[in-house]
Protein 1
Amino acid sequence: MSSLTASGPMIAESSVARVPAVVGDLLRLTRPRIAVMILVAVGASCFVAAWGAPDAGLLWSAVLGTGLVAASSSAANQWLERDTDALMRRTARRPIPARRLAARHVFPFVALTGAGGLAWLAGAAGWSPAGWAALSWLLYVGAYTPLKRYSPWSTGIGAVAGALPVVVAWTAVGAPLGWRCGALFTWMFLWQFPHFMAVAWIHRDDYARAGLRMMTVVDRSGVQAGVHAVLGSVAMIPVTLAPAIMVRTQGGAWIAAAAIVLGGLMLGASFHFLFQRTLRSARLLLRVSLVYLPLMFALLALTTVLGSWR
Protein backbone atom coordinates (compact mmCIF):
# COMPACT_ATOMS: atom_id res chain seq x y z
CA MET A 1 0.00 0.00 0.00
CA SER A 2 2.83 2.39 0.81
CA SER A 3 4.25 2.06 -2.70
CA LEU A 4 0.84 2.78 -4.21
CA THR A 5 0.26 5.89 -2.14
CA ALA A 6 3.72 7.18 -2.98
CA SER A 7 3.19 6.82 -6.70
CA GLY A 8 0.73 9.74 -6.88
CA PRO A 9 3.20 12.45 -5.75
CA MET A 10 5.95 10.88 -7.83
CA ILE A 11 3.81 11.04 -10.98
CA ALA A 12 2.80 14.60 -10.18
CA GLU A 13 6.40 15.68 -9.65
CA SER A 14 7.40 14.00 -12.92
CA SER A 15 4.63 15.82 -14.80
CA VAL A 16 5.61 19.17 -13.30
CA ALA A 17 9.26 18.55 -14.16
CA ARG A 18 8.31 17.97 -17.79
CA VAL A 19 6.52 21.30 -18.19
CA PRO A 20 9.64 23.36 -19.04
CA ALA A 21 10.72 20.71 -21.58
CA VAL A 22 7.29 20.72 -23.25
CA VAL A 23 7.24 24.52 -23.37
CA GLY A 24 10.73 24.50 -24.89
CA ASP A 25 9.67 21.99 -27.55
CA LEU A 26 6.57 24.02 -28.40
CA LEU A 27 8.83 27.05 -28.80
CA ARG A 28 11.08 25.02 -31.14
CA LEU A 29 8.05 24.27 -33.30
CA THR A 30 7.83 27.98 -34.07
CA ARG A 31 11.41 28.03 -35.47
CA PRO A 32 12.38 31.20 -33.57
CA ARG A 33 15.18 32.30 -35.90
CA ILE A 34 12.86 32.34 -38.90
CA ALA A 35 10.17 34.03 -36.81
CA VAL A 36 12.58 36.80 -35.84
CA MET A 37 13.36 37.49 -39.51
CA ILE A 38 9.64 37.69 -40.29
CA LEU A 39 8.98 40.05 -37.39
CA VAL A 40 11.87 42.32 -38.42
CA ALA A 41 10.25 42.56 -41.86
CA VAL A 42 6.84 43.29 -40.30
CA GLY A 43 8.18 45.98 -37.97
CA ALA A 44 10.19 47.74 -40.66
CA SER A 45 7.29 47.56 -43.12
CA CYS A 46 5.05 49.30 -40.58
CA PHE A 47 7.51 52.20 -40.44
CA VAL A 48 7.78 52.46 -44.21
CA ALA A 49 4.01 52.23 -44.68
CA ALA A 50 3.37 54.97 -42.13
CA TRP A 51 6.00 57.32 -43.60
CA GLY A 52 7.59 57.43 -40.16
CA ALA A 53 6.89 56.09 -36.69
CA PRO A 54 3.54 54.21 -36.82
CA ASP A 55 0.95 54.12 -34.07
CA ALA A 56 2.54 52.04 -31.30
CA GLY A 57 -0.61 50.00 -30.72
CA LEU A 58 -0.96 49.09 -34.39
CA LEU A 59 2.76 48.29 -34.63
CA TRP A 60 2.66 45.84 -31.74
CA SER A 61 -0.62 44.37 -32.93
CA ALA A 62 0.92 43.68 -36.34
CA VAL A 63 4.04 42.14 -34.80
CA LEU A 64 2.16 40.01 -32.25
CA GLY A 65 -0.60 38.87 -34.59
CA THR A 66 1.78 38.02 -37.43
CA GLY A 67 4.12 36.29 -34.99
CA LEU A 68 1.33 34.03 -33.74
CA VAL A 69 0.19 33.16 -37.26
CA ALA A 70 3.79 32.46 -38.30
CA ALA A 71 4.22 30.23 -35.23
CA SER A 72 1.08 28.33 -36.21
CA SER A 73 2.22 27.82 -39.80
CA SER A 74 5.66 26.59 -38.71
CA ALA A 75 4.13 24.13 -36.26
CA ALA A 76 1.59 22.95 -38.85
CA ASN A 77 4.40 22.45 -41.35
CA GLN A 78 6.26 20.22 -38.90
CA TRP A 79 3.07 18.36 -38.02
CA LEU A 80 2.43 17.60 -41.70
CA GLU A 81 6.06 16.74 -42.44
CA ARG A 82 6.72 14.63 -39.35
CA ASP A 83 7.39 11.49 -41.43
CA THR A 84 9.80 13.14 -43.86
CA ASP A 85 11.45 15.08 -41.02
CA ALA A 86 12.30 11.75 -39.39
CA LEU A 87 14.27 10.79 -42.52
CA MET A 88 16.47 13.90 -42.60
CA ARG A 89 19.48 14.43 -40.36
CA ARG A 90 18.86 18.15 -39.88
CA THR A 91 15.23 17.65 -38.79
CA ALA A 92 15.23 14.21 -37.13
CA ARG A 93 15.74 15.80 -33.70
CA ARG A 94 12.76 18.10 -34.02
CA PRO A 95 10.17 17.57 -31.25
CA ILE A 96 7.68 15.47 -33.25
CA PRO A 97 9.99 13.03 -35.11
CA ALA A 98 12.12 12.69 -31.96
CA ARG A 99 8.89 11.71 -30.12
CA ARG A 100 9.24 14.39 -27.47
CA LEU A 101 5.84 15.70 -28.55
CA ALA A 102 2.98 13.55 -29.81
CA ALA A 103 1.55 14.67 -33.13
CA ARG A 104 -1.96 14.79 -31.61
CA HIS A 105 -0.74 17.30 -29.03
CA VAL A 106 0.65 19.68 -31.65
CA PHE A 107 -2.65 20.32 -33.40
CA PRO A 108 -4.16 22.29 -30.48
CA PHE A 109 -1.05 24.49 -30.46
CA VAL A 110 -1.44 25.08 -34.21
CA ALA A 111 -5.12 25.95 -33.81
CA LEU A 112 -4.68 28.20 -30.78
CA THR A 113 -1.78 30.23 -32.18
CA GLY A 114 -3.31 30.52 -35.64
CA ALA A 115 -6.80 31.47 -34.47
CA GLY A 116 -5.37 33.71 -31.76
CA GLY A 117 -3.15 35.57 -34.21
CA LEU A 118 -5.93 36.09 -36.74
CA ALA A 119 -8.39 37.19 -34.04
CA TRP A 120 -5.85 39.63 -32.63
CA LEU A 121 -5.14 41.15 -36.04
CA ALA A 122 -8.84 41.41 -36.88
CA GLY A 123 -9.73 42.98 -33.54
CA ALA A 124 -6.80 45.37 -33.21
CA ALA A 125 -5.98 46.26 -36.82
CA GLY A 126 -8.92 45.18 -38.99
CA TRP A 127 -10.06 42.40 -41.27
CA SER A 128 -7.69 43.26 -44.11
CA PRO A 129 -4.42 42.37 -42.30
CA ALA A 130 -6.13 39.31 -40.82
CA GLY A 131 -7.15 38.21 -44.32
CA TRP A 132 -3.64 38.62 -45.71
CA ALA A 133 -2.22 36.70 -42.75
CA ALA A 134 -4.74 33.90 -43.34
CA LEU A 135 -3.74 33.76 -47.01
CA SER A 136 -0.08 33.48 -46.03
CA TRP A 137 -0.91 30.60 -43.66
CA LEU A 138 -2.97 28.79 -46.29
CA LEU A 139 -0.31 29.13 -48.99
CA TYR A 140 2.46 27.91 -46.70
CA VAL A 141 0.61 25.06 -45.02
CA GLY A 142 -1.91 24.08 -47.67
CA ALA A 143 0.13 24.57 -50.87
CA TYR A 144 3.88 24.89 -50.30
CA THR A 145 4.22 22.10 -47.73
CA PRO A 146 2.45 19.31 -49.67
CA LEU A 147 3.81 20.42 -53.07
CA LYS A 148 7.41 19.91 -51.89
CA ARG A 149 6.84 16.20 -52.53
CA TYR A 150 5.93 16.78 -56.18
CA SER A 151 7.53 19.88 -57.70
CA PRO A 152 10.54 22.16 -57.24
CA TRP A 153 8.26 25.07 -58.13
CA SER A 154 6.82 24.80 -54.63
CA THR A 155 9.62 27.21 -53.69
CA GLY A 156 7.86 30.00 -55.58
CA ILE A 157 4.65 29.45 -53.63
CA GLY A 158 6.62 29.40 -50.40
CA ALA A 159 8.24 32.69 -51.41
CA VAL A 160 4.83 34.32 -51.89
CA ALA A 161 3.74 33.11 -48.45
CA GLY A 162 7.00 34.39 -46.97
CA ALA A 163 6.56 37.85 -48.52
CA LEU A 164 2.92 38.37 -47.50
CA PRO A 165 3.79 39.53 -43.93
CA VAL A 166 4.90 42.77 -45.60
CA VAL A 167 1.31 43.26 -46.81
CA VAL A 168 -0.05 42.30 -43.39
CA ALA A 169 2.08 45.04 -41.80
CA TRP A 170 1.17 47.55 -44.50
CA THR A 171 -2.57 47.12 -44.07
CA ALA A 172 -2.30 46.88 -40.26
CA VAL A 173 -1.20 50.51 -40.01
CA GLY A 174 -3.97 51.59 -42.38
CA ALA A 175 -1.75 52.43 -45.37
CA PRO A 176 -3.31 52.00 -48.83
CA LEU A 177 -1.86 49.32 -51.05
CA GLY A 178 0.25 50.73 -53.87
CA TRP A 179 3.55 50.47 -55.65
CA ARG A 180 5.58 51.13 -52.48
CA CYS A 181 4.03 48.08 -50.85
CA GLY A 182 4.47 46.17 -54.10
CA ALA A 183 8.17 47.03 -54.16
CA LEU A 184 8.71 45.72 -50.62
CA PHE A 185 6.66 42.60 -51.32
CA THR A 186 8.62 41.89 -54.52
CA TRP A 187 11.93 42.45 -52.75
CA MET A 188 11.01 40.03 -49.95
CA PHE A 189 9.79 37.52 -52.54
CA LEU A 190 13.00 37.70 -54.60
CA TRP A 191 15.30 37.50 -51.57
CA GLN A 192 14.01 34.04 -50.75
CA PHE A 193 15.40 32.49 -53.94
CA PRO A 194 19.14 32.96 -53.32
CA HIS A 195 18.55 32.29 -49.62
CA PHE A 196 16.65 29.07 -50.13
CA MET A 197 18.78 27.79 -53.00
CA ALA A 198 21.75 27.92 -50.63
CA VAL A 199 19.77 25.98 -48.01
CA ALA A 200 18.58 23.47 -50.60
CA TRP A 201 22.13 22.80 -51.79
CA ILE A 202 23.52 22.36 -48.28
CA HIS A 203 20.79 19.84 -47.40
CA ARG A 204 20.24 18.29 -50.84
CA ASP A 205 21.04 14.75 -49.67
CA ASP A 206 18.55 15.08 -46.83
CA TYR A 207 15.85 16.29 -49.21
CA ALA A 208 16.56 13.44 -51.61
CA ARG A 209 16.43 10.90 -48.77
CA ALA A 210 13.04 12.23 -47.72
CA GLY A 211 11.68 12.23 -51.29
CA LEU A 212 11.20 16.01 -51.46
CA ARG A 213 11.42 17.41 -54.99
CA MET A 214 13.54 20.47 -54.32
CA MET A 215 15.50 22.14 -57.13
CA THR A 216 18.78 20.63 -55.96
CA VAL A 217 17.22 17.15 -55.97
CA VAL A 218 15.67 17.42 -59.44
CA ASP A 219 18.92 18.90 -60.83
CA ARG A 220 21.74 17.31 -58.85
CA SER A 221 24.34 19.41 -60.67
CA GLY A 222 23.06 22.52 -58.87
CA VAL A 223 23.16 24.62 -62.05
CA GLN A 224 19.45 25.46 -61.93
CA ALA A 225 19.68 26.38 -58.26
CA GLY A 226 22.63 28.64 -59.02
CA VAL A 227 20.79 30.31 -61.90
CA HIS A 228 17.74 30.94 -59.70
CA ALA A 229 19.99 32.44 -57.01
CA VAL A 230 21.65 34.77 -59.52
CA LEU A 231 18.37 35.81 -61.16
CA GLY A 232 16.83 36.58 -57.77
CA SER A 233 19.85 38.64 -56.73
CA VAL A 234 19.97 40.55 -60.03
CA ALA A 235 16.27 41.40 -59.83
CA MET A 236 16.56 42.56 -56.22
CA ILE A 237 18.93 45.42 -56.99
CA PRO A 238 16.55 47.60 -59.05
CA VAL A 239 13.68 46.71 -56.69
CA THR A 240 15.66 47.90 -53.65
CA LEU A 241 16.71 51.03 -55.53
CA ALA A 242 13.04 51.97 -55.89
CA PRO A 243 12.78 53.52 -52.37
CA ALA A 244 15.51 56.01 -53.32
CA ILE A 245 12.99 57.62 -55.68
CA MET A 246 10.61 58.27 -52.78
CA VAL A 247 12.96 59.87 -50.27
CA ARG A 248 14.75 63.16 -49.94
CA THR A 249 18.21 63.48 -51.42
CA GLN A 250 20.23 62.40 -48.38
CA GLY A 251 17.98 59.52 -47.39
CA GLY A 252 17.71 58.37 -50.97
CA ALA A 253 21.48 58.40 -51.34
CA TRP A 254 21.90 56.19 -48.26
CA ILE A 255 19.31 53.70 -49.49
CA ALA A 256 20.76 53.65 -52.99
CA ALA A 257 24.28 53.12 -51.64
CA ALA A 258 23.14 50.28 -49.37
CA ALA A 259 21.12 48.68 -52.17
CA ILE A 260 24.14 48.72 -54.48
CA VAL A 261 26.71 47.57 -51.91
CA LEU A 262 24.62 44.92 -50.16
CA GLY A 263 22.95 43.88 -53.40
CA GLY A 264 26.38 43.58 -55.00
CA LEU A 265 27.50 41.29 -52.17
CA MET A 266 24.42 39.12 -52.64
CA LEU A 267 24.99 38.99 -56.37
CA GLY A 268 28.67 38.18 -55.95
CA ALA A 269 27.90 35.37 -53.50
CA SER A 270 25.21 34.04 -55.88
CA PHE A 271 27.62 34.00 -58.84
CA HIS A 272 30.23 32.31 -56.66
CA PHE A 273 27.69 29.63 -55.79
CA LEU A 274 26.65 29.22 -59.44
CA PHE A 275 30.21 28.63 -60.61
CA GLN A 276 31.55 26.66 -57.64
CA ARG A 277 28.50 24.81 -56.24
CA THR A 278 30.25 23.63 -53.10
CA LEU A 279 29.18 23.54 -49.47
CA ARG A 280 31.51 26.44 -48.80
CA SER A 281 30.01 28.65 -51.51
CA ALA A 282 26.46 27.74 -50.42
CA ARG A 283 27.19 28.56 -46.78
CA LEU A 284 28.71 31.88 -47.83
CA LEU A 285 25.58 32.75 -49.82
CA LEU A 286 23.39 31.73 -46.87
CA ARG A 287 25.35 33.95 -44.44
CA VAL A 288 25.27 36.92 -46.81
CA SER A 289 21.51 36.55 -47.25
CA LEU A 290 20.97 36.45 -43.49
CA VAL A 291 22.95 39.68 -43.05
CA TYR A 292 21.52 41.44 -46.10
CA LEU A 293 17.81 41.33 -45.25
CA PRO A 294 17.78 42.79 -41.71
CA LEU A 295 20.33 45.45 -42.65
CA MET A 296 18.25 46.69 -45.57
CA PHE A 297 15.04 46.65 -43.56
CA ALA A 298 16.75 48.46 -40.68
CA LEU A 299 18.00 51.17 -43.04
CA LEU A 300 14.54 51.67 -44.54
CA ALA A 301 12.96 51.93 -41.10
CA LEU A 302 15.68 54.29 -39.84
CA THR A 303 15.26 56.53 -42.88
CA THR A 304 11.55 56.93 -42.18
CA VAL A 305 12.14 57.68 -38.49
CA LEU A 306 14.60 60.44 -39.39
CA GLY A 307 11.94 62.05 -41.52
CA SER A 308 13.61 61.55 -44.87
CA TRP A 309 10.44 60.48 -46.65
CA ARG A 310 8.45 63.00 -48.64
Protein 2
Amino acid sequence: MRCDQLKEAARSRELPAAVLVFEPHPREFFTPLQAPVRLTNMREKLELFAELGLDRVHVCHFDTGFAQTSAAEFINALHEQLAVKFALIGDDFRFGSGRSGDFALMEKIGAQRGFAVQAMHTVLHDGIRISSTAVRTALAEGDLRMAQRYLGRPYSISGRVEHGDGMGHKLGFPTANIQLRVQGDDLPPMDGVASLGIRPTMHHDGKAVLEVHLFDFARQIYNKHMRVDFLHKLRDEEKYSDVETLKRQIALDVSNAKQWFVQNG
Protein backbone atom coordinates (compact mmCIF):
# COMPACT_ATOMS: atom_id res chain seq x y z
CA MET A 1 0.00 0.00 0.00
CA ARG A 2 2.72 2.49 0.99
CA CYS A 3 4.85 1.45 -1.96
CA ASP A 4 1.96 2.24 -4.30
CA GLN A 5 1.61 5.61 -2.60
CA LEU A 6 5.29 6.30 -3.17
CA LYS A 7 5.25 5.23 -6.82
CA GLU A 8 2.13 7.27 -7.53
CA ALA A 9 3.70 10.37 -5.94
CA ALA A 10 6.90 9.84 -7.95
CA ARG A 11 5.07 9.34 -11.26
CA SER A 12 2.95 12.44 -10.76
CA ARG A 13 6.14 14.48 -10.32
CA GLU A 14 8.13 12.65 -13.02
CA LEU A 15 10.66 11.50 -10.44
CA PRO A 16 12.26 8.09 -9.78
CA ALA A 17 10.69 6.19 -6.91
CA ALA A 18 13.49 5.76 -4.36
CA VAL A 19 13.75 4.37 -0.84
CA LEU A 20 16.32 5.23 1.83
CA VAL A 21 17.18 2.48 4.33
CA PHE A 22 19.67 2.25 7.20
CA GLU A 23 22.15 -0.60 7.56
CA PRO A 24 22.45 -1.82 10.22
CA HIS A 25 19.10 -0.92 11.76
CA PRO A 26 19.64 1.82 14.40
CA ARG A 27 18.33 -0.46 17.16
CA GLU A 28 20.90 -3.10 16.16
CA PHE A 29 23.61 -0.45 16.36
CA PHE A 30 22.66 1.02 19.74
CA THR A 31 21.35 -2.11 21.52
CA PRO A 32 22.47 -5.19 19.57
CA LEU A 33 21.48 -7.65 22.31
CA GLN A 34 17.97 -6.22 22.70
CA ALA A 35 17.25 -5.53 19.02
CA PRO A 36 14.39 -7.65 17.60
CA VAL A 37 15.13 -10.32 15.04
CA ARG A 38 14.93 -8.97 11.49
CA LEU A 39 12.00 -9.99 9.33
CA THR A 40 14.25 -9.57 6.26
CA ASN A 41 17.93 -8.86 5.83
CA MET A 42 19.38 -6.37 3.38
CA ARG A 43 19.61 -8.69 0.39
CA GLU A 44 16.01 -9.78 0.66
CA LYS A 45 14.91 -6.18 1.14
CA LEU A 46 16.58 -5.24 -2.11
CA GLU A 47 14.93 -8.16 -3.89
CA LEU A 48 11.51 -7.19 -2.55
CA PHE A 49 11.99 -3.54 -3.52
CA ALA A 50 12.87 -4.67 -7.05
CA GLU A 51 9.75 -6.87 -7.22
CA LEU A 52 7.66 -3.89 -6.11
CA GLY A 53 8.94 -1.85 -9.02
CA LEU A 54 11.00 0.79 -7.19
CA ASP A 55 13.64 2.56 -9.24
CA ARG A 56 16.35 3.11 -6.62
CA VAL A 57 17.36 2.07 -3.12
CA HIS A 58 19.81 4.23 -1.17
CA VAL A 59 21.54 2.32 1.64
CA CYS A 60 22.82 4.59 4.40
CA HIS A 61 25.55 3.01 6.55
CA PHE A 62 24.62 3.59 10.19
CA ASP A 63 27.76 4.00 12.29
CA THR A 64 29.04 6.16 15.14
CA GLY A 65 29.61 9.17 12.91
CA PHE A 66 26.19 9.00 11.35
CA ALA A 67 24.54 8.54 14.76
CA GLN A 68 25.95 11.96 15.75
CA THR A 69 24.39 13.69 12.73
CA SER A 70 21.88 16.33 13.75
CA ALA A 71 18.35 16.26 12.40
CA ALA A 72 18.96 19.43 10.35
CA GLU A 73 22.18 17.98 8.89
CA PHE A 74 20.32 14.83 7.88
CA ILE A 75 17.63 16.82 6.07
CA ASN A 76 20.22 18.98 4.32
CA ALA A 77 22.07 15.83 3.21
CA LEU A 78 18.88 14.52 1.63
CA HIS A 79 18.68 17.70 -0.43
CA GLU A 80 22.37 18.10 -1.27
CA GLN A 81 23.50 14.49 -1.76
CA LEU A 82 20.33 12.83 -3.06
CA ALA A 83 18.75 15.86 -4.74
CA VAL A 84 15.43 15.10 -3.09
CA LYS A 85 12.48 16.89 -4.62
CA PHE A 86 9.76 15.13 -2.62
CA ALA A 87 9.91 13.06 0.57
CA LEU A 88 7.31 10.63 1.89
CA ILE A 89 7.91 9.64 5.51
CA GLY A 90 6.01 7.98 8.34
CA ASP A 91 4.12 10.39 10.54
CA ASP A 92 5.98 8.97 13.56
CA PHE A 93 9.43 8.89 11.93
CA ARG A 94 12.18 10.24 14.21
CA PHE A 95 15.69 10.93 13.01
CA GLY A 96 18.91 12.74 13.84
CA SER A 97 21.06 12.65 16.97
CA GLY A 98 18.89 12.01 20.01
CA ARG A 99 15.90 11.34 17.71
CA SER A 100 15.34 15.09 17.69
CA GLY A 101 13.92 15.31 14.16
CA ASP A 102 10.30 14.71 13.24
CA PHE A 103 7.84 15.31 10.41
CA ALA A 104 7.26 18.96 11.35
CA LEU A 105 10.99 19.75 11.21
CA MET A 106 11.48 17.99 7.88
CA GLU A 107 8.48 19.81 6.45
CA LYS A 108 9.84 23.17 7.66
CA ILE A 109 13.40 22.71 6.39
CA GLY A 110 12.13 21.02 3.23
CA ALA A 111 10.14 24.12 2.40
CA GLN A 112 13.26 26.22 2.92
CA ARG A 113 15.37 23.94 0.70
CA GLY A 114 12.72 23.59 -2.00
CA PHE A 115 11.32 20.08 -1.58
CA ALA A 116 7.89 18.93 -0.43
CA VAL A 117 7.25 16.52 2.43
CA GLN A 118 4.21 14.29 2.89
CA ALA A 119 3.32 11.98 5.79
CA MET A 120 2.39 8.33 5.51
CA HIS A 121 -0.26 7.73 8.12
CA THR A 122 -0.61 4.67 10.28
CA VAL A 123 -2.18 1.67 8.54
CA LEU A 124 -4.66 -0.34 10.62
CA HIS A 125 -6.05 -3.83 10.18
CA ASP A 126 -9.09 -4.61 12.33
CA GLY A 127 -8.00 -1.81 14.65
CA ILE A 128 -4.42 -3.10 15.00
CA ARG A 129 -1.52 -0.95 13.84
CA ILE A 130 0.43 -2.79 11.14
CA SER A 131 4.07 -2.84 12.19
CA SER A 132 7.04 -5.16 12.40
CA THR A 133 6.05 -5.84 16.02
CA ALA A 134 2.59 -6.98 14.92
CA VAL A 135 4.15 -9.26 12.29
CA ARG A 136 6.55 -10.79 14.82
CA THR A 137 3.67 -11.38 17.23
CA ALA A 138 1.66 -13.17 14.56
CA LEU A 139 4.66 -15.34 13.66
CA ALA A 140 5.34 -16.17 17.32
CA GLU A 141 1.73 -17.32 17.63
CA GLY A 142 2.03 -19.41 14.47
CA ASP A 143 -0.62 -17.30 12.73
CA LEU A 144 0.90 -17.25 9.24
CA ARG A 145 -2.34 -16.06 7.66
CA MET A 146 -2.36 -12.94 9.83
CA ALA A 147 1.35 -12.33 9.20
CA GLN A 148 0.62 -12.49 5.47
CA ARG A 149 -2.18 -9.95 5.83
CA TYR A 150 0.12 -7.56 7.66
CA LEU A 151 3.01 -8.02 5.20
CA GLY A 152 0.92 -8.09 2.04
CA ARG A 153 2.81 -11.27 1.05
CA PRO A 154 3.67 -14.62 2.62
CA TYR A 155 6.38 -14.52 5.25
CA SER A 156 9.53 -16.02 3.75
CA ILE A 157 13.05 -17.18 4.53
CA SER A 158 15.59 -17.72 1.80
CA GLY A 159 19.12 -19.06 1.64
CA ARG A 160 21.75 -21.05 -0.16
CA VAL A 161 21.08 -24.76 -0.38
CA GLU A 162 23.86 -26.61 1.41
CA HIS A 163 24.88 -30.21 1.92
CA GLY A 164 23.43 -31.49 5.17
CA ASP A 165 24.05 -34.68 7.10
CA GLY A 166 22.00 -36.82 4.70
CA MET A 167 19.46 -37.65 7.38
CA GLY A 168 16.55 -36.66 5.17
CA HIS A 169 17.54 -39.26 2.59
CA LYS A 170 17.96 -41.88 5.30
CA LEU A 171 14.48 -41.16 6.60
CA GLY A 172 13.02 -41.37 3.10
CA PHE A 173 12.32 -37.64 2.76
CA PRO A 174 15.24 -35.84 1.06
CA THR A 175 15.46 -32.24 2.12
CA ALA A 176 17.08 -29.01 1.03
CA ASN A 177 18.98 -27.74 4.05
CA ILE A 178 18.91 -23.95 4.29
CA GLN A 179 20.77 -22.09 7.00
CA LEU A 180 19.06 -19.04 8.46
CA ARG A 181 20.30 -16.38 6.09
CA VAL A 182 18.41 -14.89 3.17
CA GLN A 183 19.22 -14.96 -0.52
CA GLY A 184 17.28 -15.26 -3.76
CA ASP A 185 17.21 -17.24 -6.99
CA ASP A 186 15.04 -17.96 -10.04
CA LEU A 187 13.83 -21.46 -9.18
CA PRO A 188 10.19 -22.00 -10.18
CA PRO A 189 7.47 -22.10 -7.48
CA MET A 190 7.16 -25.56 -5.95
CA ASP A 191 4.98 -27.00 -3.20
CA GLY A 192 6.58 -28.65 -0.21
CA VAL A 193 6.71 -29.05 3.55
CA ALA A 194 9.34 -27.50 5.80
CA SER A 195 10.75 -27.93 9.27
CA LEU A 196 12.32 -24.97 11.04
CA GLY A 197 14.02 -25.85 14.30
CA ILE A 198 16.83 -27.64 16.10
CA ARG A 199 15.84 -31.25 15.16
CA PRO A 200 15.84 -32.50 18.77
CA THR A 201 15.25 -36.17 17.92
CA MET A 202 18.42 -36.49 15.83
CA HIS A 203 20.67 -33.64 17.01
CA HIS A 204 21.70 -32.03 20.27
CA ASP A 205 23.77 -29.06 19.15
CA GLY A 206 20.85 -26.62 19.32
CA LYS A 207 21.61 -25.26 15.84
CA ALA A 208 18.51 -24.02 14.04
CA VAL A 209 18.11 -25.17 10.44
CA LEU A 210 15.38 -24.81 7.86
CA GLU A 211 14.79 -28.12 6.04
CA VAL A 212 12.44 -28.29 3.07
CA HIS A 213 11.04 -31.40 1.40
CA LEU A 214 9.75 -30.59 -2.10
CA PHE A 215 6.99 -32.72 -3.55
CA ASP A 216 7.78 -34.70 -6.72
CA PHE A 217 11.17 -33.05 -7.11
CA ALA A 218 14.50 -34.76 -7.89
CA ARG A 219 16.83 -32.05 -9.27
CA GLN A 220 20.24 -31.27 -7.79
CA ILE A 221 20.04 -27.75 -6.35
CA TYR A 222 23.10 -27.50 -4.12
CA ASN A 223 24.53 -23.95 -4.02
CA LYS A 224 21.32 -22.58 -5.51
CA HIS A 225 19.35 -19.95 -3.65
CA MET A 226 15.78 -20.69 -2.66
CA ARG A 227 13.12 -18.54 -1.06
CA VAL A 228 10.64 -20.41 1.11
CA ASP A 229 7.22 -18.80 1.54
CA PHE A 230 5.48 -19.91 4.74
CA LEU A 231 1.78 -20.40 4.03
CA HIS A 232 0.40 -22.56 6.84
CA LYS A 233 1.64 -23.98 10.13
CA LEU A 234 1.05 -27.70 10.69
CA ARG A 235 2.45 -28.17 14.21
CA ASP A 236 5.20 -27.30 16.67
CA GLU A 237 8.54 -29.12 16.65
CA GLU A 238 8.64 -32.23 18.85
CA LYS A 239 11.22 -34.72 20.13
CA TYR A 240 10.38 -38.37 19.44
CA SER A 241 11.49 -41.48 21.28
CA ASP A 242 12.92 -43.22 18.22
CA VAL A 243 13.57 -42.82 14.50
CA GLU A 244 10.60 -44.92 13.40
CA THR A 245 8.19 -42.65 15.27
CA LEU A 246 9.85 -39.64 13.62
CA LYS A 247 9.50 -41.22 10.16
CA ARG A 248 5.79 -41.88 10.72
CA GLN A 249 5.24 -38.28 11.84
CA ILE A 250 7.11 -36.89 8.81
CA ALA A 251 4.99 -39.04 6.50
CA LEU A 252 1.88 -37.68 8.19
CA ASP A 253 3.16 -34.12 7.86
CA VAL A 254 3.77 -34.63 4.14
CA SER A 255 0.27 -36.06 3.70
CA ASN A 256 -1.33 -33.19 5.63
CA ALA A 257 0.67 -30.61 3.70
CA LYS A 258 -0.36 -32.08 0.34
CA GLN A 259 -3.98 -32.08 1.47
CA TRP A 260 -3.68 -28.42 2.49
CA PHE A 261 -2.42 -27.49 -0.97
CA VAL A 262 -5.33 -29.37 -2.55
CA GLN A 263 -7.82 -27.46 -0.40
CA ASN A 264 -6.10 -24.07 -0.71
CA GLY A 265 -4.45 -24.32 -4.14
